[in-house]
Amino acid sequence: MKAGTIAQILFIFVAAIAVYGFVRAAQNDQRYSACTAFCTLRPDYAARNRTAPEFELPDLDGRPVRLSQFRGKTVFLNFWTKTCRPCLEEMPSLAELGKVLQKRDDMVLIAISTDESAVDARDTLKVVLNNEIPFLVLVDSESAVVREKYGTKLFPETWIIDPKGVIRARFDGARDWSDASVINIGEMVQRVGGCPVEFWKGSPTGKFGGLCADEG
Q1: What is the rounded distance in angstroms from the CA atom of residue 89 to the CA atom of residue 78?
Q2: What is the count of structural domains for the chain?
Q3: Residues 2-20: tens digit of each pLDDT
Q4: Domain carrying residue 197
């Protein structure tokens, strides 16, 4: 084989390695960018393979609402009750999130109360939120959805469901939902691929868990 031919082959080989490295670096940058908000807020659970259980519950006016009505949108699903102090403490920040989402057509906040009646839920929220309720409230007085379908026993708990109806994250306990990172997560789950990092009990796991290393 001529020296010139060998040189050409070596050049092509080195160039291929360089392109591969560039593509991998670009992919890692994209993944890191997509996961920044997740890594910051650290959900208690995050995976990519469970469809949110369907349900139908009445709103505060008694009208039936189904989860599937919101396909095509990111759904923030919050479980709460009036006897849960952390629920009431986080409610003002949920209201701030609700106000932001009212201006968007690609995300929605739904709060499900396990109180005895719509009157209980409405009266509690009016006191906590100064008569303004900027999000959809449903009532699950028998906990048939919250406990039996979603397995929630401790409140508050918030689930993020992507536009295809897949559960992308669960947050246990009260959070500050007015943080800008919350909207970033809502937008992230809408993108193809989203964030590949899985979480368990607040810790990143799986093949891409190292993407959260820089977020401490």
Answers
A1: 13
A2: 1
A3: 555 655 555 555 444 443 3
A4: 39-215
